[in-house]
Amino acid sequence: MGMFYLGYDSTYILVLIGVALCLLASSRVNSVFRRYSSVRSRSGMTGREAAEKILRANGIYDVTVRHIPGNLTDHYDPRNKTLGLSDATYGSASVAAIGVAAHECGHAVQHATGYAPLKFRGALVPVANFGSAIAWPLILIGLVINSNSAFLFIDLGILLFSAAVLFQIVTLPVEFNASNRAVNALEKSGMLYPEEIRQTKAVLGAAALTYVASAASAILQLLRLIIIGGRRRND
Protein backbone atom coordinates (compact mmCIF):
# COMPACT_ATOMS: atom_id res chain seq x y z
CA MET A 1 0.00 0.00 0.00
CA GLY A 2 2.95 2.31 0.62
CA MET A 3 3.63 2.69 -3.12
CA PHE A 4 0.31 4.55 -3.43
CA TYR A 5 1.95 7.60 -1.93
CA LEU A 6 4.53 7.70 -4.72
CA GLY A 7 1.81 8.30 -7.30
CA TYR A 8 -0.84 10.98 -7.58
CA ASP A 9 -2.80 12.02 -4.52
CA SER A 10 -4.93 14.99 -3.55
CA THR A 11 -2.15 16.61 -1.49
CA TYR A 12 -0.47 17.68 -4.73
CA ILE A 13 -2.87 20.62 -4.68
CA LEU A 14 -0.83 22.03 -1.78
CA VAL A 15 2.33 21.86 -3.90
CA LEU A 16 0.56 23.55 -6.82
CA ILE A 17 -0.69 26.35 -4.58
CA GLY A 18 2.85 26.91 -3.30
CA VAL A 19 4.26 27.00 -6.82
CA ALA A 20 1.55 29.44 -7.93
CA LEU A 21 2.29 31.76 -5.00
CA CYS A 22 6.02 31.78 -5.80
CA LEU A 23 5.43 32.42 -9.50
CA LEU A 24 3.04 35.28 -8.79
CA ALA A 25 5.45 36.86 -6.30
CA SER A 26 8.37 36.50 -8.71
CA SER A 27 6.36 38.03 -11.54
CA ARG A 28 5.35 40.91 -9.30
CA VAL A 29 8.87 41.77 -8.13
CA ASN A 30 10.25 41.58 -11.69
CA SER A 31 7.48 43.84 -12.96
CA VAL A 32 7.91 46.45 -10.22
CA PHE A 33 11.70 46.39 -10.48
CA ARG A 34 11.59 46.86 -14.25
CA ARG A 35 9.20 49.78 -13.82
CA TYR A 36 11.34 51.68 -11.34
CA SER A 37 14.68 50.66 -12.82
CA SER A 38 13.81 53.06 -15.63
CA VAL A 39 13.26 55.92 -13.17
CA ARG A 40 16.55 57.75 -12.67
CA SER A 41 17.08 59.21 -9.21
CA ARG A 42 17.49 62.98 -9.06
CA SER A 43 20.75 62.59 -7.17
CA GLY A 44 22.24 60.55 -10.01
CA MET A 45 23.87 58.31 -7.42
CA THR A 46 24.51 54.70 -8.48
CA GLY A 47 23.70 51.61 -6.44
CA ARG A 48 27.39 51.21 -5.58
CA GLU A 49 27.73 54.81 -4.47
CA ALA A 50 24.56 54.63 -2.39
CA ALA A 51 25.74 51.41 -0.70
CA GLU A 52 29.13 52.88 0.16
CA LYS A 53 27.55 56.04 1.57
CA ILE A 54 25.10 54.08 3.76
CA LEU A 55 27.83 51.78 5.03
CA ARG A 56 30.05 54.72 5.97
CA ALA A 57 27.12 56.50 7.64
CA ASN A 58 26.74 53.45 9.87
CA GLY A 59 30.44 53.28 10.71
CA ILE A 60 31.03 50.19 8.57
CA TYR A 61 34.37 50.30 6.73
CA ASP A 62 35.26 46.60 6.47
CA VAL A 63 32.54 45.59 3.98
CA THR A 64 33.54 45.44 0.32
CA VAL A 65 30.98 46.43 -2.32
CA ARG A 66 31.53 44.44 -5.51
CA HIS A 67 29.89 43.84 -8.86
CA ILE A 68 28.41 40.40 -9.44
CA PRO A 69 26.76 38.98 -12.58
CA GLY A 70 23.05 38.33 -12.94
CA ASN A 71 19.78 40.12 -12.37
CA LEU A 72 18.46 40.62 -8.83
CA THR A 73 21.24 38.39 -7.51
CA ASP A 74 22.16 41.10 -4.99
CA HIS A 75 23.16 39.81 -1.56
CA TYR A 76 25.29 40.41 1.52
CA ASP A 77 27.69 37.64 2.52
CA PRO A 78 28.54 37.83 6.24
CA ARG A 79 31.27 35.20 5.89
CA ASN A 80 33.63 37.47 3.97
CA LYS A 81 31.84 40.78 4.53
CA THR A 82 31.11 41.46 0.88
CA LEU A 83 28.08 43.18 -0.53
CA GLY A 84 27.39 41.93 -4.04
CA LEU A 85 25.38 44.13 -6.38
CA SER A 86 24.08 42.71 -9.65
CA ASP A 87 24.26 44.13 -13.17
CA ALA A 88 20.98 46.01 -12.74
CA THR A 89 22.05 47.56 -9.44
CA TYR A 90 25.80 48.21 -9.25
CA GLY A 91 26.19 50.92 -11.88
CA SER A 92 22.58 52.00 -12.20
CA ALA A 93 21.34 55.35 -10.89
CA SER A 94 17.71 54.24 -10.83
CA VAL A 95 15.41 54.46 -7.83
CA ALA A 96 15.09 50.67 -7.89
CA ALA A 97 18.85 50.13 -7.86
CA ILE A 98 19.37 52.47 -4.91
CA GLY A 99 16.57 50.76 -3.00
CA VAL A 100 18.01 47.28 -3.55
CA ALA A 101 21.51 48.45 -2.64
CA ALA A 102 20.17 50.05 0.55
CA HIS A 103 18.35 46.82 1.44
CA GLU A 104 21.56 44.82 1.21
CA CYS A 105 23.27 47.45 3.35
CA GLY A 106 20.52 46.76 5.85
CA HIS A 107 21.82 43.21 6.15
CA ALA A 108 25.37 44.48 6.62
CA VAL A 109 24.17 46.73 9.43
CA GLN A 110 22.30 43.80 10.98
CA HIS A 111 25.52 41.80 10.93
CA ALA A 112 27.58 44.63 12.38
CA THR A 113 25.12 45.22 15.23
CA GLY A 114 24.56 41.54 16.04
CA TYR A 115 20.89 41.51 15.05
CA ALA A 116 19.54 38.39 16.79
CA PRO A 117 17.22 37.02 14.05
CA LEU A 118 20.07 37.23 11.53
CA LYS A 119 22.37 35.30 13.85
CA PHE A 120 19.65 32.69 14.46
CA ARG A 121 19.05 32.32 10.72
CA GLY A 122 22.77 31.88 10.14
CA ALA A 123 22.87 29.11 12.74
CA LEU A 124 19.96 27.39 10.99
CA VAL A 125 21.62 27.31 7.56
CA PRO A 126 23.48 23.96 7.87
CA VAL A 127 20.54 22.29 9.59
CA ALA A 128 18.06 23.63 7.04
CA ASN A 129 20.24 22.58 4.08
CA PHE A 130 20.70 19.09 5.49
CA GLY A 131 17.02 18.80 6.38
CA SER A 132 15.74 19.84 2.97
CA ALA A 133 18.14 17.41 1.25
CA ILE A 134 17.51 14.32 3.36
CA ALA A 135 13.85 14.75 4.39
CA TRP A 136 12.19 13.31 1.30
CA PRO A 137 14.51 10.26 0.99
CA LEU A 138 13.73 9.36 4.61
CA ILE A 139 9.99 9.83 4.09
CA LEU A 140 10.02 7.75 0.89
CA ILE A 141 11.80 4.94 2.72
CA GLY A 142 9.15 5.09 5.41
CA LEU A 143 6.37 4.92 2.82
CA VAL A 144 7.67 1.89 0.96
CA ILE A 145 8.94 -0.36 3.73
CA ASN A 146 6.63 -2.54 5.80
CA SER A 147 8.08 -2.61 9.27
CA ASN A 148 7.72 -0.91 12.61
CA SER A 149 10.60 1.40 11.74
CA ALA A 150 8.63 2.92 8.84
CA PHE A 151 7.06 5.56 11.06
CA LEU A 152 10.46 6.43 12.51
CA PHE A 153 11.76 7.29 9.05
CA ILE A 154 8.66 9.36 8.26
CA ASP A 155 8.72 11.27 11.54
CA LEU A 156 12.43 11.95 11.24
CA GLY A 157 11.97 13.19 7.68
CA ILE A 158 9.17 15.53 8.74
CA LEU A 159 11.22 16.81 11.67
CA LEU A 160 14.19 17.57 9.41
CA PHE A 161 12.01 19.29 6.83
CA SER A 162 10.55 21.39 9.66
CA ALA A 163 14.02 22.87 10.14
CA ALA A 164 13.97 24.07 6.54
CA VAL A 165 10.51 25.56 7.09
CA LEU A 166 11.71 27.30 10.24
CA PHE A 167 14.55 28.84 8.23
CA GLN A 168 12.02 30.30 5.78
CA ILE A 169 9.93 31.71 8.61
CA VAL A 170 12.90 33.27 10.39
CA THR A 171 13.94 34.83 7.09
CA LEU A 172 10.82 37.02 7.10
CA PRO A 173 11.68 39.33 10.03
CA VAL A 174 15.29 39.50 8.78
CA GLU A 175 14.20 40.73 5.35
CA PHE A 176 11.50 43.07 6.65
CA ASN A 177 13.94 44.62 9.09
CA ALA A 178 16.56 45.09 6.36
CA SER A 179 14.00 46.92 4.21
CA ASN A 180 12.98 49.15 7.12
CA ARG A 181 16.63 49.98 7.75
CA ALA A 182 17.04 50.75 4.05
CA VAL A 183 14.13 53.18 3.96
CA ASN A 184 15.28 54.90 7.16
CA ALA A 185 18.81 55.24 5.80
CA LEU A 186 17.60 56.73 2.53
CA GLU A 187 15.31 59.18 4.32
CA LYS A 188 18.03 60.35 6.72
CA SER A 189 20.70 60.65 4.05
CA GLY A 190 18.56 62.70 1.70
CA MET A 191 19.69 60.59 -1.25
CA LEU A 192 16.11 60.28 -2.46
CA TYR A 193 13.21 62.72 -2.57
CA PRO A 194 9.91 61.78 -0.85
CA GLU A 195 8.34 60.60 -4.11
CA GLU A 196 11.40 58.49 -4.83
CA ILE A 197 11.18 57.00 -1.33
CA ARG A 198 7.62 55.94 -2.11
CA GLN A 199 8.81 54.25 -5.30
CA THR A 200 11.60 52.53 -3.41
CA LYS A 201 9.10 51.21 -0.87
CA ALA A 202 7.11 49.70 -3.76
CA VAL A 203 10.22 47.85 -4.97
CA LEU A 204 11.13 46.57 -1.51
CA GLY A 205 7.51 45.64 -0.78
CA ALA A 206 7.33 43.55 -3.94
CA ALA A 207 10.61 41.87 -3.03
CA ALA A 208 9.24 41.06 0.42
CA LEU A 209 6.36 39.18 -1.19
CA THR A 210 8.80 36.66 -2.62
CA TYR A 211 9.95 35.73 0.88
CA VAL A 212 6.36 35.49 2.11
CA ALA A 213 5.51 33.24 -0.84
CA SER A 214 8.54 31.02 -0.19
CA ALA A 215 7.59 30.65 3.47
CA ALA A 216 3.98 29.88 2.59
CA SER A 217 5.10 27.31 0.02
CA ALA A 218 7.37 25.61 2.58
CA ILE A 219 4.56 25.50 5.14
CA LEU A 220 2.20 23.97 2.58
CA GLN A 221 4.82 21.36 1.72
CA LEU A 222 5.23 20.52 5.40
CA LEU A 223 1.46 20.20 5.76
CA ARG A 224 1.48 17.81 2.82
CA LEU A 225 4.14 15.66 4.45
CA ILE A 226 2.19 15.55 7.70
CA ILE A 227 -0.97 14.48 5.83
CA ILE A 228 0.92 11.78 3.93
CA GLY A 229 2.47 10.53 7.17
CA GLY A 230 -0.95 10.40 8.79
CA ARG A 231 -2.37 8.40 5.92
CA ARG A 232 0.50 5.93 6.17
CA ARG A 233 -0.32 5.36 9.83
CA ASN A 234 -3.95 4.67 8.96
CA ASP A 235 -3.02 2.38 6.10
UniProtKB/TrEMBL annotation:
Keywords: Membrane, Transmembrane, Transmembrane helix
Organism expressing this protein natively: Schaedlerella arabinosiphila
Pfam families listed in its UniProt record: Zn_peptidase_2
InterPro entries (UniProt xref): Zn_peptidase_2
Positions of transmembrane segments: 12-33, 123-145, 151-172, 202-227
Name of protein: Zinc metallopeptidase
UniProt entry tagged with the keyword Transmembrane helix: yes
Highest taxon in the source lineage: Bacteria
